[in-house]
Design goal:
With about 190 residues, the chain is mainly β. The chain has 4 helices and 12 strands; from the N terminus they run E-E-E-E-E-H-E-H-H-E-E-E-E-E-E-H. The longest helix is centred in the N-terminal third of the chain and has 9 residues. The structure holds flavin mononucleotide (FMN). The site of flavin mononucleotide has 23 residues, from strand 3, strand 5, helix 1 and helix 2.
């Protein structure tokens, strides 16, 4: 390999270009596209999202302690880009993009009905980092379109291509059709 030194940067990818929905008392809903989304704990299941304090969604999530991670499919890239370039301060993104806010178990944050996978989360911790707030959320409910699941209710990546992002570009991950531990079975 012929390695080049690059500037320090967060070149981890692909990460999901996820649509995070939130709400507040009075019935205001919003959506923000986030790529800084990660898995941080297994029992209980926990995920992290990292948001700049200047975002409209930041105050809503701070206020209610709730958010939903909605995973978009690659054919929803227009939505991800749109929800990540306009602010809820200026437009109701549910109405603007023709999306349906659906009631899950959370009090204020709705699911995005049109996204095939939804993780409802309650904030457990918030960590102020230099540019972003890292919210750690416990996943308290998950909803998945039956069309993206196999007969054992596992995600079937032949039927579902989640939208990814890295280094400023949108990506489509294609399945290798190799399962965890497959290399040991070959020996
Ligand atoms: C692909 C993509 C990924 C993004 N990831 C993040 C992120 O991880 N954190 C963040 O604060 N903003 C991120 N943004 C920017 C916000 O989505 C954008 O500023 C949005 O318009 C804020 O909406 P709001 O003001 O309604 O909350 C991303 C935008 C795009 C298009």
């Amino acid at each position: 390999m012929n390695k080049r030194s690059l500037s320090p940067q967060t070149l981890l990818g692909p990460v999901p270009a996820a649509l995070i929905s939130c709400g507040r008392p009075g019935g205001e809903f919003n959506i923000i596209t986030l790529a800084w989304v990660g898995v941080v704990n297994s029992t209980p299941p926990m995920v992290s999202i990292s948001i700049r304090p200047s975002r409209h969604s930041h105050a809503m999530i701070r206020e209610t302690g709730e958010f939903v991670v909605n995973i978009a499919a690659t054919d929803q890239v227009d939505l991800a880009d749109g929800c990540g370039t306009i602010s809820g301060r200026d437009r109701d993104k549910f109405k603007y993009f023709g999306l349906t806010p659906a009631k899950g178990v959370l009090k204020y944050a709705p699911l995005i009905e049109e996204c095939p996978l939804n993780l409802e989360c309650v904030v457990e911790q918030a960590l102020e980092l230099p540019s972003h707030t890292l919210f750690i959320g416990k996943v308290i409910a998950v909803h998945a379109d039956a069309a993206i699941l196999d007969e054992k209710n596992r995600l079937d990546f032949k039927r579902f291509q989640p939208l990814g992002f890295c280094g400023g570009s949108y990506l489509a991950a294609s399945p290798l059709e190799l399962s965890l531990g497959y290399s040991l079975k070959k020996k």
